[in-house]
């Protein structure tokens, strides 16, 4: 039996808060390991799960009533409450716009205390070269983690294939195609990147984007 797909918290360097998306009900086909946060509403503190976080806001799974425009704060493992307001409310999810943009990379760089069930994924649009045997493709990376990449796969990548992944500014990473479905594919690295190397690479990507 194959491994179940796993959903984890997605990080983004965008200044825009995550937009509302159609909700998919959880089922046995997917396992979720979202980052846990504390939702602060007035003098009440509730548990929430962070599904997507950017510099400008976040999407959370809520377990209490919220309404658009409501003032809230979210506390992550760093212990620093982030203030903002509710931008949209769905069936079980809600969006939050921060009062001030946050430094997503600083959250990643300092979030090393305690066990992490999954490596954080960071949204990106970087170009990536994937080599399989004698063939090399230039593809687009959707998100990257210490353990691998998700790609827009306009190439015939086959699950189980050995590949070498090259992101500009990082050494080539040997890996394996874990899955390929539709227009996307997932590759896991044989040896995880260090969090320091990954954050340094993301810093370079952000600086290049600002300079463009």
From TrEMBL:
InterPro entries: PilZ_domain. Residues 1-28 are annotated as: Disordered. Residues 23-103, 118-197 form the PilZ domain. Residues 9-18 have a biased composition (Polar residues). This is PilZ domain-containing protein.
